[in-house]
Design goal:
The protein has no helices and twelve strands. The strands form three sheets. The chain has a four-stranded antiparallel sheet, with no helix packed on it. A four-stranded antiparallel sheet has the order 5-6-7-8, with no helix packed on it. The protein has a four-stranded antiparallel sheet with strand order 9-10-11-12, with no helix packed on it. It is globular, with a radius of gyration of 17 Å. The chain has 192 residues and is mainly β. Helices cover 0% and strands 53% of the residues.
């Protein structure tokens, strides 16, 4: 019998969702062994659900629809646990008009809900943005206390059609934490 540090003996894959609709681009992020987030695209909806280390639904973190329903052709779903472990960045590509652009939402793991609205990852309106990847980062103050729950986003952007040649861009996003280490505002571009 294999050794299992999670305490469950079942080695079979875990079925997380059996919705009859098409489910595409699943993504997962683990916050270090306490819980993990799983997201997927179904139609023009991004859904994110949260599970404990045993794979059970986490009742403290309800599932959410992260997308606002305005964009179409959703793809490139990415999820990253923030570097301080307070929440999750959920990002994807969507089409609005004739171009694809990238958006980011923040799931506040302290309150169990979305913080703020969709925000544009790139400030370059009208350019096609695609091939997104995100990673978490954190920042501590001089005393070693977390002050930012952050995300790095990297993508390709150009004037051509979606998924054609372009330049690679990077942007950092920061979610400031208050004195209690709770997220206090939606993510904002933080430069490099």
């Amino acid at each position: 019998m294999p050794i299992n540090v999670w305490g469950a003996d079942d080695q079979n894959p875990l079925s997380l969702n059996s919705d009859a609709n098409a489910q595409l681009n699943p993504a997962v992020a683990d916050n270090g062994g306490v819980e993990f987030a799983v997201g997927w695209i179904s139609g023009n909806t991004v859904t994110v659900s949260f599970f404990d280390e045993q794979g059970h639904v986490n009742p403290a973190l309800p599932s959410v629809v992260a997308s606002d329903g305005v964009g179409t052709n959703l793809s490139d779903l990415q999820i990253a646990a923030g570097g301080s472990g307070m929440g999750y960045g959920v990002a994807w590509s969507e089409t609005s008009g004739a171009t694809s652009h990238l958006v980011l939402r923040y799931y506040n793991g302290v309150t169990g809900g979305l913080l703020g609205n969709e925000i544009a990852i790139s400030s370059h309106a009208g350019a096609n943005q695609h091939d997104l990847s995100v990673a978490g980062y954190g920042r501590d103050n001089a005393q070693g206390r977390p002050i930012i729950d952050g995300f790095d986003a990297v993508w390709v952007e150009g004037a051509g059609a979606a998924h054609t040649l372009g330049s690679v861009y990077l942007q950092r996003f920061a979610v400031p934490l208050d004195a209690a280490r709770d997220p206090s505002a939606p993510p904002a571009a933080a430069g490099v």
